Write the structure tokens for this entry.
Amino acid sequence: MEPNVEARLDQLTERYPALAVCRADIQRAYEVLAACYENGGKLLIAGNGGSAADAEHIVGELMKGFVKPRKPGAEYAARLKAAHPELGPVLAENLQGALPAIALDGHPALSTAYMNDCEPLLCFAQQVNGYGRAGDVFLGISTSGNSKNVLYAATVARAKGMPVIGLTGQKDSKLSAMADVCIKAPATETFMIQELHLPVYHCLCLMLEERFFAETWTKP
């Protein structure tokens, strides 16, 4: 196991002992995501309500610096500067490396058009159908694990050859049954499940950032 992965998992379970039961699944989810990004893929995320907010939160941590600055490499910085003498240096100084991720709740014109014209429960599935490619990853967040629109999206992902990660509560569910990896937070009340989801996805984002944007890793 990569040193940063083991150390981050140790840190997570020290701070949130209840999540020790999820450790192996968190590691597996990380490995699926790392393989996706190694191969130039992207992450598609869907959830409802608080889980939609979590989807947006995850995108925010992956698409810009989380705890590291992710400065452009020298070659890319030089190309930016060469592209425009005034604007390029600003870009070279301020752009940050990104791990491509899209929250599927964040497209109201598309979603409302599709829900009005077609089948409302398929609004996430339609976006997986449009954005998804084999080797991308679909992350479905559902505290019950039975949100119909998330399940439809996961079904499309599987048909496209995309690994499916579930983030749910502790009960077995339809999403946990169809996911390649399911992280089941050890709680049954919705708000308690959501309280545990945040440290889980923060841990995943930290490990991914350390893998792709740091030559060396320093223990926190």
